[in-house]
Amino acid sequence: MSIHDGPGIRSTVFMKGCNLRCKWCHNPETWSRAKQLQHIESKCLHCFSCISVCEQNAISSIENRIKINHQACNTCGKCCEKCPSEALSAIGREVTADSLTEELEKDRVFYETSSGGITISGGEPFMQADFVIELLEQCQKEGLHTAIETNMSMPWESIFPALSHTDLWMCDLKVFDSDKHKYWTGAGNERIMDNLARLAKTGAEMIVRTPVIPGVNDNEYEIKNICGFLKKIGGNVRYELLKFHNLGFGKFDNLGMTNEMDASAHLEDSTFEQLNEIVKSNYFPKP
Amino acid sequence: MNRFDERIARLRARKLAQTEEKRKIEGVLDEDDYGRIVPPKGLWEPMPNSPDGSFYGFKGWTDNFCSLMDVHPVYVDADDAFTGRWMYFMSRMRKNKWNPDYPYTHLEKDIEKYDIICGIGDDAHFAPDYKMGVSLGWGGLIEKIEKYKTLNNSAEQKEFYDIHLRAIHSIQGWMKRHIEKSLAMAAEESDEWKRNNLLAQAAVNKNILNAAPTTLREACQWIIWYHLASRTYNRDGAGGQIDSLLQPFYENDLKNGIIDRDTAVYYLACFLINDPIYWQLGGPDRNGNDQTSEISYLILDAADKINTSLNITIRVHDGLDKKLFDKAVGYLVKNKNGWPRFSGDKALVEGFMRNGYSKELALERIAVGCNWMSLPGLEYTMNDLVKVNMAKVFEVALYETRESENICTESIWNAFTKHLQIAVHTAAEGIRHHLKYQKYNEPELLLNLLSHGPLEKGKDASDGGAQYYNLAIDGAGLAIVADSFAAMERHIEEQHEISWGELFSALENDFTGDQHENTRRILRKTDRFGKENSCGEKWAVRIKDCFTDIVRNESEPGKCFIPGFFSWANTVGFGKTVGATPDGRHARKPISHGANPSPGFVSDGASLSLAKAVAKIQPGYGNTAPMQWELDPTFAMSSNIEIIEAIIKAHFELGGTLINVNIMDKEKILEAHRNPDKYPDLVVRVTGFTAYFSMLSPEFRQLVVDRLLVS
What we know:
The structure holds two protein chains of two kinds.
Chain A: E1 10-14, E2 36-39, H1 49-53, E3 59-62, E4 65-68, H2 78-82, E5 88-91, H3 97-105, H4 108-114, E6 117-121, H5 129-141, E7 145-150, H6 156-159, E8 168-172, H7 178-185, H8 190-201, E9 205-212, H9 220-233, E10 236-243, H10 250-254, H11 269-282
Parallel strand pairs in A: 1-6, 6-7, 7-8, 8-9, 9-10
Antiparallel strand pairs in A: 2-5, 3-4
Chain B: H1 5-26, H2 57-71, H3 90-93, H4 105-113, E1 116-117, H5 130-151, H6 155-188, H7 192-207, H8 216-234, E2 238-241, H9 242-255, H10 261-274, E3 278-281, H11 294-306, E4 311-316, H12 322-335, E5 341-344, H13 345-353, H14 359-363, E6 366-367, E7 373-374, E8 379-380, E9 387-389, H15 390-402, H16 409-441, H17 454-457, E10 468-476, H18 478-494, H19 500-508, H20 514-524, H21 535-552, E11 560-565, H22 571-576, H23 606-616, E12 627-631, H24 641-653, E13 658-663, H25 666-674, E14 683-685, E15 690-692, H26 698-710
Parallel strand pairs in B: 2-3, 3-4, 4-5, 8-10, 9-10, 10-11, 12-13
Antiparallel strand pairs in B: 1-9, 5-13, 6-7, 14-15
C-alpha cells in the first residue's frame, strides 16, 4: 500500500513489462514481463545453501559471493525458499483479475477512511491492457476509486477502453524534445503527446507528471515547453513535477541488470523549487 | 505570545528541573512521570502496625495517610494558578504489599511457574467520579458520610465511615497550610501580578475548603487536591472526561465575565502540568452525542503550551468533531511528544455490551488509565494489574511435550491451552482472594469517596461497595507465542528443514554456535504475526480466541472477567524468566510488546499492516489490546495529517481499541540513549504511559531504541 500513488491510501498494483527504457528508472524490475530472481547482497549470509538446490546450475560462488546466471535461471523459486535470510526473492507473480480484486478489496477500510483507492502502475500497465481493463472494471464495480499510472506510449486503441473505468489518470510526459526523449527513454514522444491530447479532450481527470532528472530535463526550456503543450491541450489536467531520486538504482545490481545512468546524479532542492516556480507561472491548472 | 506564556515557560522549566532532580536523587524509573517531586529527606516515615514492619487495614492506612498529610510539605509557586504537588509513594514505602494474615500459599507455586503478575494487594486502577467530587466538594462528602453513618452502623462500618472522615479532615488541613503559605508569600512578594496570583490561590482554596467549586479555577484546584491525595495514598492516576467535566464551570465563568480564553488556557496549562493524569477528550455522551466543546480545544492548546509528559486520549467515534481530531493529530505531529493518543469507541462500546451491559452504560466507559477504560465511580476493575506471561506458559508447555513420542505443534498447542487454563484460573483465583481480603490489607480510602456505592453501603470498593466488578486479566507475549508456533509448524513439520532435536538443542544453547545460529535463521524466516494471512497471524488469532474463552469462562455472578492484551512496562521483566523461544528470540530478552507483532514483522507498509494485525487479535469485550505505533518522523508531518487520521480511523473501524503513538527522530533517540542529560525534555510513549526518556533505565531505553530502529 502507498500514499504516493494518488489521493489517500492506495493499493498499488505494479504490472511487469515496460516498452520504455528510461535510464533513470527506479523500478527496473518492471521492465521485463517475466518473473525475475532478485539477490540482495547486503542480506546474503554467504551460506551458499541456494547453490545446492538449484537444478539449473544457475547459481555459483565466486570469491565468496553468489553469482547468478540469469539466463539459465528458470525462476522456480527453490533457492528463495532455501535462503535463510531472504536475500533471494522472486519478483512477479501471475494473478487473475478476480483474485487480485479480492485481495485489493481487503483493504477497503483504508481507502474509505482516506478517500483513497487502487492504482495500477508499472512498468507500463497497457502492455497488459486486457487484464488492466478487466481489473479496473471489477474494482469500479466494487465501488473502489481507480487510478492508473501510465507512460501513454501504447496505441490509443489499447488505452481507450480503460477510459470509462478509470477515475484518475496519472500520465508521464518526461521530456519535451522528441529526439531527446528517444535518447533517454528509448522511444520518441509523438504518440505520448497525441494520446495526452486525446485523453484531455475526453474530460478525464488527469495529472501529467514530469520526473525532473538532472542533466536530462532540469531546465527552463523543457518545463516551459511542457507547460505550453498542456495549456494547448486543455482538459481537466493538473501538472506536477516529481523529484528525481536514485533509491531504486541498487535494484539493477540485484537483478543482474546494467544501469546506464550515473548513480551519483543528484538534483538540488533549489533547482527543483525553481522549476516548480516556472510551472506556477506558466501553467494554471484547474482549481 | 500572550501575558501568560512567560509564566507557563517558567513552570515548564521548573518541571524539567524537578524531573532532573528526581533522576539524580532517586535514580531511574521505568514508569510514568506521575508529576511527583522529590520529598525532603527524613520528614516522614511510615508507621508500621504489623510485626512484619508494614501497615495494613483501615486503621493502619488511615493512621499513616493522615500522619503524612499532617506534615506533607506545601508547594506554592507564584507563577502557578494552583497549589500543591505530591511527593510520597506511600504505598511503595511499606515493607510488604500483602497482609500476611491472609496468605495465598495455595496459588504461589503456579504464580511462579507461569510468571503471573497476580495483582493480589495491588490498588486503585479504577476510576473515581470527579463529577461527584466537584458537585459535592469536601463538605458535601462529609455530609454524605454522616448521612450513611447513621444508616449502616455495624462496628466495622462505623470504623469505615470514621476513617473516611479522618482522611478528608487531614486533606483539608493540608489545604489550609497552603492557604497560609500563599498568603505569607503574597506578603513578601514585590511583583504585583505574582502577589495578586498568590492571593487568588489563597482565595480559591478558602472557597473550596468545604464548599463545592463554582469557577473553572476552583474546579481544577479541587480536582488537583483530590488526585494529589489519591496519588499519595496509592498512586491512583485515573482521570475522567475532562472537557465535559470542566465545560459548565468555563461557560459559567464566561457568562459572569470573569474569564477570557487566554486565562482559561493558562489555568488548564497549570492543571495539566500538575500531573500527567489520564484524561479523555471528545467522544460520545450517554446519548451518543459528541462531547467536544470549546474547552476541549482549550485543553489541547494548553497541553501544547506545556508539552511535557501528558496522557490525553481522544475518543474517536463517527460523530467526533473533525476540527478537534485535526487539532489533536496536528499537535501529535508538531510536538512529537507521544500525546495525544486515541481510543476507538465502536469496538470498546460493542465489546463492553457483549458482557451484558446496556449501550448507555458502555458509552460511559472511558479511557482513564494506561491501557484501560473504566466507568467513573461505578466499577472495581483491577485494570492493568493482572497479567499472564503467555511466553512462559508456552515454554512450560513446550518442554513438557518434549519427552512425548508424538511431539508436534498440535500436541504442544494442547499442552499450551491446558497450561494457559491453569495460569488464567490461578490469576482469577488471585483476584478472588484479593477481593475477599483487600479491605484488611489496603482499603480504597480515597477512591471510595468518589465512587457510587462504598459510602452508601458502608463497604470498601474492593469488598462489594462498587456497583460492578469487571475484572481485567491481560495476556502478554502474544507475538512470541504465535511466531513460535508458526516457526515450528513451518520449518519442522511442513518444510522438514530442522528436526525437533535440533530445535531443542538450539534453544538450550540459546542459538549460539554456527549450527544453532543457522537453525535460528531458518526459524526467523517465517511469515510472522503482523503479515496478513501469515502462519503467524493464524496462530495469533487462535491464541486470542483461546485466551478470550478461558478468561471469559472464569466469570461468575457478580464478577465479570474481561480479557485484554497488554504488557505495560513488564516486557523486560517477563522476558527475563523465559529462555530462547522458537521464534528466534534469544533467552532472557524482552517479550513482545503488548498486542503488537514483534518488531520487523514486515519489510514495508508497517503502519497499515500493524493497524490490521492488532485489530485482528482484539478479545472484543471492552478492554483493550492497544496498538503501539512507532511513526516515522519523515511521514509524521502536517501534510500527512489526513492520512494519519485515516489509519487511526481504519484501525478502529476494523475493531481496534486504543492507539499509542510515538514519533521519534532516530538520530535524536540514539544520542539521547548515549547521553540522557542532553535531552532532559525528550518524552516517549513507552506504552500506555509517557515518560521522560532520561528517567528510564538503560535497559528500558535500549528497548525503546530497538523498537524504534526495527520499525
